[in-house]
Amino acid sequence: MSKQTIALVGAPTDIGAGHRGASMGPEALRVAQIAEKLHARGLDVADRGNLHGPHNPWLPPVNGYRHLAEVVAWNQVVHAAIHDELAHGRLPIMLGGDHCLAIGSISAVARHCREQDRKLRVLWLDAHADFNTATITPSGNIHGMPVACLCGNGPAELVAIGGHAPATTPDVFRQIGIRSVDEGEKRLVREAKMAVYDMRHIDEVGMRGTMEEALAGMDGDTHLHVSFDVDFLDPGIAPGVGTTVRGGPNYREAQLCMEMIADCGRLGSLDIVELNPAFDKRNQTAKLAVDLVESLFGKSTLIRA
């Protein structure tokens, strides 16, 4: 292929979230011209439209999980779609949807890496560690559990999506921008030896030092997956999310994060999740997310070597 082919895969559901509205995220990103902006960067862009799964019944948790059967169904569909794009040499961008969908997308990327005998690195850009389990979260919302499920700590139906349990191990993750971790979750993150670059770390060493650490050790056999939860950003610049947490990266810090990922040249797949137009103002959060994704694919102020 002469040009990198990008495949946009919509997953319009808020099945794992505590607020309705993330199901409208894929369309908001399209309205913000994600396909056109990436095409203008010289990329071939194929919009696959939206995947289909069960509707959100909006019920209370059962045995510690809300909507488990529906979450499993959505993640199976996501897994199949993302794996198919990777198998055909395309770079998939999952347009979410809430963050529970990362179970499907990252398990697909991990499966692809096993098939290609490649290493995996996941940058988890998020205000939250998402390492909860049913026993430590009262809400039962599975969008707070995807990293735990991917690492083997969750219901069997989710842990084994993709036919390999666990899909990944904690050492592949680098969590960046974290500033909200539940009390019981803190212990689990510590026991898993998860590499977490929280906002204090970013405050102390800066975004540049943080990203140098998070990107260190990758080589030509490493597939880099970025899971971009829009609540990673400070709500002052990105109000359109269901779970705002003050004190996140500002615009320039977020741009530097994306630019340094672009500079490493290893990006192989991307999630954009938790964009909630119901909380947004004139689609500004979607426009900002698209702006940052442009930087992720090489947009910069100057021509750089």
Automatic annotation (TrEMBL):
The keyword Manganese applies. It catalyses: L-arginine + H2O = urea + L-ornithine. Keywords: Arginine metabolism, Hydrolase, Manganese, Metal-binding. GO terms for molecular function: arginase activity. It holds the Pfam family Arginase. InterPro entries: Arginase, Ureohydrolase, Ureohydrolase_dom_sf, Ureohydrolase_Mn_BS. The keyword Metal-binding applies. Its EC number is 3.5.3.1. Its cofactor is Mn(2+). Pathway: Nitrogen metabolism; urea cycle; L-ornithine and urea from L-arginine: step 1/1. Binds 2 manganese ions per subunit. Belongs to the arginase family. NCBIfam families: rocF_arginase. This is Arginase. It comes from Rhodanobacter lycopersici. The gene is rocF.
